[in-house]
Amino acid sequence: MSTSAMFFYGLAASVLITALLSVTSRNIFRSAIFLLFSLVSIAGIYFWMDYQFIAAVQTIVYVGGIVVLIIFSIFLTQQAGVDLPAPLRSRTLFAALAAISGFLLVGMQLLAHPFTQGTDAVLSKDMKAVGNGLLSTAENGYALPFELVSILLLASMIGCIVIALKPNTIQE
Amino acid sequence: MNEVPLSHFLLLSTALFFIGIFGFLSRRNLVTILMSVELILNSVNINFIAFNEYLWPGKMDGLYFTLFIIAIAAAEAAVAIAIIIHLYRHYRSIDAEDTDILRF
User: Fold this and answer.
1) Contact A77 B63 (CB under 8 A)
2) pTM summary value
3) Size of interface A-B (CB pairs under 8 A)
4) What Cα–Cα distance (Å) separates residue B96 from each residue in B28, B64, B84?
5) Which residues in chain A have their CB less than 8 angstroms from residue B45's CB?
6) Per residue in A75-112, pLDDT tens?
7) For the complex shown, is ipTM > 0.85?
């Protein structure tokens, strides 16, 4: 096994172990930090595959945005240092059963399916090509979804402000 | 790059997806349920990137789908946290067992 492949398997193991710790840890703050490490390792996998733009977006949006938002909401809604109540044992058991059987089912299908390797010429995924494709209006351009996403972000921003307003300030 | 077969990427994303499903089903706190949803969305992103790299190396559609999924996931997380904070004001708790009224 070459060094490059070992990097991939190390990153994959780190993604899975920290994700598992993140969904099982009883301390909610620790759980958020494990989620952060899992997301950073996924960004590492994107870097390993030479998708620098996606890796940068993953780092900025998830690690810099969503995890910080989650940590803020933990500070607003939890008493610091108090462990979560234990999950119901029967529910944990059935959730584990569902997850393991689902993983086995999908995994066996994956290993049995022959994927045909793509044969067309490898396209460079550098920033310039990504940006030109994202804003192009020609065929295979993504200008319309780009604009739609900006409308969605505006709508969700207004929605968040309306939902999180203090209830007595609405009547004034 | 080519020493790792596509199926290993797919197994990684499947495992991550079902870890997220496990957290989603077993957790009681709404913030931790939101974290599990983020793990599920990330596993889908790994799938898109791996398919783009291995099956259609001459296109960039998987890359753009991943970008849009990340943008929508950010919007979803913000709305979910606004709802969680609003629920906390009403119930003084964000345990999924306590919030059983479809109102407010």
Assistant:
1) no
2) 0.90
3) 220
4) 5, 35, 10
5) 42, 54, 58
6) 888 776 677 777 778 889 999 999 999 999 999 999 99
7) yes
